[in-house]
Give the backbone structure.
Amino acid sequence: MTHESRPEDDLLAERLTWSRTSPARPIPAPDVWPLIRFPSTPDPFDAPMRVEADIVGIECIQGEVPAHLDGTYFKAVCDRQYPKAVPEGPLGAFNDDGMAISFRFHKGRVDYKSRFIRTPRFEAERAAGRSLFGYYRNPLHDDPLVEGVVRGIANTNLVYHAGKLYASKEDAPPIIIDPETLETIGHYDFGGAFTSQTATAHPKIDPRTGELVFFGYAAKGETTRDIAYYEADANGDIVHETWFKAPYSCMIHDFAVTQNYVVFPVIPLRSELAWLEAGESTFQWDPQEKVHLGVIPRKGRGDKAVWYEGPNRFASHIMGAYDDGRRIYIDTPVSHSSYFPWFPIVGNGEHDPERSKGYLSRWTIDLAGEGRSFTETRLSNVPSEFPRMDDRYETLTYQWGLMGLTERPGHDAPGRGFRWVATIDHRTGAHRLYYPGDRATVGEPIFVQGDENAPEGHGYVFVIVSRRDLMHSELVILDAQDVDGEPVCTLKIPLRIPRGLHGNWVTAEELARRD
Ligand SMILES: [Fe+2]
């Protein structure tokens, strides 16, 4: 299926890019500061928090902190500085301001810190005392004061590589922040080598080479089909760049990296310029469009990408991927409709909660097979998202994974959101589950290696639990091989940590290797 561009699109497209050379014009302070009044949230726990905090020595309310853990858990969360300038509906945290939080572990003490990420957008709005940017990923309805200002909100992930801590969302270049103070340093373009308008929030680090593998989609501005694929070496210098075009413009939130290939999943959460112009949702689910997986050898040329087709499906995060030379295996929760209910359906279709449930599945591409299609095999029968793995096995054959569950068949849990943490052993398909209680939800679980030489999946699981009845958050540490047992420890944060997306553990040894 093709989605033709219109003659007027070129002119519009110019307004969808930000400028590297035109700084934002000064934002005048208002004569009287605007009234701040946020709309109410269905659950008071999810109201904006807007607190930048330092807590030295978090209270441990259960168990004991493993004293040998030496490092920092960084996580991106989403808060909002001001009420939105435009009505957005239930967009979740997608369009909220990025905040970095950190838990520093050293000799049994854990310190907590949180700071808003000072994006150009955040600073412009702070100067004005109100929101100036409009719809999600749509600059056409912004306040004219901020024309050309980078719209990125850096609210999705914090990734550490080669001495730099990157705060990213897929709508702009990454921002680097100080890993100790969480102060914003600014946008980073790898010494001028990074020319894409955007960078994924899901880069991969090759554990064998230390290379950072990443990409940008909508790389020449919103709705463009352009993808830029990069690799940086272990020192953080870009050593590979190639550009190519996706079959259609869509959200490419994550991608698969193996030892020998990169795979770009083009999923029919499409984007069209006319939708932005009309103030409609920038992304809309197209139930008629196919999935296309673009395969490129590592450090290969984009124009040599080979595209493999599959039926209409939704997928977002990838648990793990690897290849055996002939076949590429990609494990991801797959649903039959968009997982995100707030994005409309092309043709005014109704969102179907059953069809939007994601089940961990394996997509297999046979590079030596006949035809250009891939196969799908279900790996789990519980709906899941936020898949993670033991990152020491990124790009490699792996057996152990981690995910969040919104439901567990046969078990009633009141309320909404992610309620369980689950592990999966791919050798048996068996799950083990952690349930924090009826009035609690969980964030993305991550694996933390207690000992870098420990076998795969042997270590800890960190998960932030929202205690919705008590109006505070907890960092719960589980034994990764026994998540259904008593937690190793529970750390109480005496405030609500805003809803978060992704995070990562960085050892003190890695942090010491800073520039
Ligand atoms: Fe993500």
Notes: The chain has a mean pLDDT of 94. The chain is about 5% helix and 35% strand.
